[in-house]
Write a structure and sequence with these properties.
By secondary structure, this protein is of the alpha+beta class. 13% of the residues lie in helices and 25% in strands. The protein has a five-stranded mixed sheet with strand order 2-3-1-4-5, sandwiched between helices. Strands 8-9-10-11 form a four-stranded antiparallel sheet, with no helix packed on it. It is globular, with a radius of gyration of 17 Å.
């Protein structure tokens, strides 16, 4: 379980794909995060955050912009036993990722780790090359199978329970995580009736590029 949905019938037992996604303001809006079961957000450098988007229950035709891996992002992803996918990294990180015994795919290079051809560049999305990389889950799975990576399984550290009745739900309606600056302000507004949070980014709705 990666989203709280019940497993079974071969539908929700896909091995998680943990994909690195850019969060520089000029690279927004993002593609495909709405289909992820979980999204981890961490500071990469200089206050800029980056996501690990974890896909298991749903596929996505376009995810991104995809960015490079980092050692501590890989360590977090490893707890899920995923197929860790990224767009290049630095030599020391390649070596560390290999030592973690991760099933990993690199969309940028064939030099260090198994290469996936599932990625592409879309120059219409941005003038800067580093913000133009995208990928899809079906292509990742196709290449993963080619390298003998298991496509079923994975593990989740999450424990889920049934929704509490409305009368017993919490009263905290606004949560803000200030990673570094207003540009990376993550906000969550709680709707008690539906028991769901709406996500904001830098004070605006965190919307999907393709669907709005």
């Amino acid at each position: 379980k990666f989203s709280g949905l019940e497993l079974g019938n071969g539908i929700l037992d896909s091995r998680p794909l943990a994909i690195m996604v850019q969060n520089n303001p000029v690279a927004r809006p993002h593609s495909g995060l709405i289909y992820a079961d979980m999204v981890f957000e961490l500071v990469a450098e200089g206050g800029v955050t980056r996501f690990i988007a974890v896909f298991s229950s749903n596929d996505a035709d376009i995810i991104g912009p995809v960015r490079s891996g980092r050692i501590y992002f890989a360590e977090i992803a490893r707890s899920l036993d995923p197929i860790y996918t990224f767009w290049g990294t630095y030599p020391e990180a390649y070596e560390a990722i290999k030592k973690m015994d991760l099933d990993a795919l690199d969309a940028n290079s064939t030099a260090y780790i198994n290469y996936t051809s599932a990625g592409w560049r879309d120059p219409s999305r941005n003038e800067a090359l580093e913000h133009t990389a995208f990928i899809d889950t079906s292509g990742i799975k196709k290449d993963a199978a080619k390298y003998g990576y298991a496509l079923k399984g994975g593990q989740s550290p999450m424990a889920f329970k049934l929704d509490a009745p409305e009368s017993r739900r919490g009263s905290i309606s606004e949560i803000t995580v200030n990673f570094s600056s207003q540009s990376y302000l993550a906000g969550f507004s709680y709707d008690k009736a539906t028991n769901k949070y709406q996500k904001t980014l830098a004070g605006q709705p965190h919307n999907d590029f393709e669907t709005g």
